[in-house]
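[agent] plan:
  1. take the single chain provided in the ticket
  2. run structure prediction with default settings
  3. attach structure tokens to the ticket
  4. add a short note for the reviewer (M.T.)
[agent] executing step 1
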Amino acid sequence: MNVLITGATGGIGQALIEVFYKNSWNILAVGRNNKILEDLKLKYKDRIEIYSRDISKEKEIIEFLEEIKDREINLLINGAGIGEIGEFENISLIEEQKMININIQALLILTKYFYKKMLKRKEGGIINISSTAGFQVGGPLMCGYYATKAYVNSLTFGLIEENQEKNIKIMLLCPGPTATNFKGMKREIEGVKKFYITTPEEVANQCYRDYISGKKLSIPGKINKALYYINKFIPWKIQLRNIKKIQEKKYKETLK
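[agent] step 2 finished; step 3 output follows
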């Protein structure tokens, strides 16, 4: 069984490689960090193929798909994603567009391409990695990022319903705050943060269990799941104020 993972050089991406490797999958890893990709190749040897691609560029995606057109991909994991934090007017248009290209355009192109191939084979699966941010009404100080994740959530939920009778396994993975190198986050988890911040390994293991069990939505972490339901009853203006307070703390961390 072959799994293709984008964002393979990031925290959750690397953790997913480890989980799928341990469960006897062959891995096609796509990322931008050549050093990490080479380290992955040394570690997993003939069970992994590495592809250094910048999927913010449509041309590189198309060239990559042409390169692997004869490979059977049993599972696609759209894990690549970036975020920008700061006041909307201070984030450059180029940075916002790159975020849209990776978080939305690349995911859309890959999902559509492999979904069509899977439909022909009547077999396969897709996991789109989003965020609990995608369930919020908006994200002050991360306006563009929250908007991209809302797109991923909406697209995936719609596809899940369309796919009801088509036999392709589709799941939306929505981690909450995770200890990675994502902007505004730290790898070290301290104090009360241990109760609501997950590790990449926890996210990856939950993702695998939920996908194998046939779930459509995976939200790692008990508190994150509880907040998902509680949030439905909180007025949108209060939601936005609360989110702004959280993001202000993260933004200050990036300035240190």
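[agent] step 4 note for reviewer: The beta strands are 2-6, 26-31, 48-52, 75-78, 125-129, 169-173, 217-218.
[agent] ticket updated
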